[in-house]
Amino acid sequence: MILEVKDLSFKYHNNRLIFHDVNFNIDSGEILSILGPNGSGKSTLLNCIANLYKPLSGEILLNGGPILKMNLRHIAQIIGYVPQTHIPAYAFTVREFTVMGRTPYIGAFKMPSRTDYKIADRALEQLGVSHLKNKAYTEISGGERQLVLIARVITQQPKIILLDEPTAHLDYGNQHRTVQLIRQLADEGYALIMTTHNPEHAIILNGKVAILNRKGMLGIGQSVETINSNTLSDLYGLSIKTIYIEEAKRMVSIVC
Amino acid sequence: MKKTNNNKNNLSSIDGEVISQKNEFFEFIRFQGLLWLSLLILIIVLGLSLAIGRYRVPFENTFRIVFSNIFTMETNWDSIQEAVVMNLRLPRTIAAIIIGSALALSGATYQSIFKNPMVSPDLLGVSSGASVGAATAILLGQGGTMIQLSAFAGGLIAVAITVMIPRLIRNQSTIILVLSGIVIGSLMSSIMSILKFVADTDTQLAEITYWMMGSFAKVSFKTMLPVLTTIFLPMIIILLFRYRLNVLSLGDNEAKSLGINLKTTRGIFILSSTLITASSVCLSGTIGWVGLVIPHTARMIIGSDNKKMLPIAMIFGGIFMLIIDILCRTLTSAELMLGILTGVIGAPFFIFILFKQRRQVN
């Protein structure tokens, strides 16, 4: 098992418990979509797994070893993190930005080598954004920025990719392209964990689904079993129905 | 649909390889070209700085004087000319280059750490702390070395207090750090006002003011020597570590997720640039604008990648400081203070840069 999460709980300084008793594991080629209403702590959970926040209790095992005992560079060689797109303060070119994914492999006094740039170029090509290579990352569109971020995480060559709301701020077409891309990455052997506000995406990805409710409890299962009218209605406090649509050959969720 | 995509990718990969090699070559030439061109300009300005001044020394004599100290040559100039060039102009020329590049480097470093291109090296209160240190020493009637030492200590103490506040309130965010920098900075300027108020108006106040505006007039090899280690060592450290600055400038979470130990790395950069700024202030007083304007200019010309930007910014800093110093000692009969001209030239120059950038974006 590449990632095991055991009895994880978290709280911010002097605040309520955000989540508790979180247990799950994920292996190469698997996708876990985390669903939950605003403020339920999806991103906090993701940040805990990424080792950005320190959990209150419980442990996270990477390849069987506790993450807390590993050094940051080693963790970064296993876990890649795709933050929500934002515009950095400096206008790095797309190529300069992508090659920063190599940081965990570059010694403290070193610069990226020719090989590092080649790996970055290959990732940009794989995502079909090579033509942006010399453009400023700050001046490309939101959808392109998302692709470059994913190119950077591929450049990082991790085993697990964490994505924080990868479809936020994207138009309808780009949302679906991103979901397809995530599916493709799973087929290539990455383990992926992502947070999302759209249950449809979890249905399309057809992997594991974790539902984090307002009480900080996490329910987990295969998407086909977990996502149904009851769970969605409970989760978002609305009357939601899931219906099988013949043309799409899958379930679709509809607010009634 | 997948298949057509793959075909497309394969095609573009063949073209891409050629294009990327071409681009790499052009980029390399562009960087090397700019590097050598700016070094050449630096050398020319250095020559001018040795030759120009109130006391007239013929151009050719200037260079013969300098080279006569390296090679044996027959001497056909008077000793006053030699003293002016070797003991007055040479030390301040070298000091101007060192301080200019040091301030540009520490400014660029601060700007990356704090993810803000508008930050200058005195963000955490180094300069104002050093000013208080120097003014205290002046009030106590101390001489040159004590003033230097006290300025250095004042700068470091101010930054130490600034860095301690976020620890005390247990909030290690950058914003709190910047805020405490602002608080300590303004506390130091208030203390400065008190010190100025009690200073003797005829002698001490003038010295304090002179010191606060910055000048290379009193620089000699003797005053330069003690601060060279505390300037050069941190400079080398920053230059060696400079790729990490790129990653730090993306933000705390991203840097950490890319395997960077935030606390240590940021600590090393803050300590190094603080040492650089404190040492420069010790040598020449506080000089504004260089740390802000120069990195900005370098970034506009060569891009944001610190790998290329930092060396270019250092050379630009040296050139800028030398030109300012030449103007300071030639424009008026009495020598002007550096702070006046860096502001008068730096501010419009900065507006010009912002204007050009705006046009580029459009």
Can you offer a commentary on this structure?
The complex is a heterodimer of chains A (256) and B (362). In chain A, helix 4 (114-126) packs across helix 5 (142-155). In chain A, helix 6 links the parallel strand 7 (160-163) and strand 8. In chain A, strands 6-7-8-3-9-10 form a six-stranded mixed β-sheet, with helices on both faces. In chain A, strands 2-1-4-5 form a four-stranded antiparallel β-sheet, covered by helices on one side. In chain A, strands 11-12 form a two-stranded antiparallel ribbon. The model of chain A has no long low-confidence stretch (mean pLDDT 92). With 256 residues, chain A is an alpha/beta fold. In chain A, 32% of the residues lie in helices and 27% in strands. Chain A is globular, with a radius of gyration of 19 Å. The termini of chain A are far apart. In chain B, 80% of the residues lie in helices and 0% in strands. In chain B, helix 3 (79-113) packs parallel to helix 8 (221-248), helix 3 (79-113) runs antiparallel to helix 10 and helix 8 (221-248) runs antiparallel to helix 12 (306-330). Chain B starts with a helix and ends with a helix. The longest helix of chain B is centred in the N-terminal third of the chain and has 50 residues, at 2-51. Chain B is an all-alpha fold and 362 residues long. Chain B is globular.
Shape summary of chain A:
globular
Percent strand of chain A:
25-35%
Rg of chain A, alpha carbons:
19 Å
Instruction: Describe the oligomeric state of these chains in a short phrase.
Output: heterodimer
Q: Provide a count of the helices of chain B.
A: 13
Q: Assign the structural class of chain B, choosing from mainly alpha, mainly beta, alpha/beta, alpha+beta, or little secondary structure.
A: mainly alpha
Q: What is the tally of helical segments of chain A? A: 9
Distance between the termini of chain A: 40 Å
Question: What order do the SSEs of chain B take from the amino end to the carboxyl end, as H and E?
Answer: HHHHHHHHHHHHH
Low-confidence stretches of chain B: 1-16
Spans of chain A of at least 5 consecutive residues whose pLDDT stays below 50 are none
Mean pLDDT level of chain A: 92
Helix-strand makeup class of chain A: alpha/beta
**Overall geometric form of chain B:** globular
Average pLDDT of chain B: 87
Could you give the order of strands across the largest sheet of chain A? Answer: 6-7-8-3-9-10
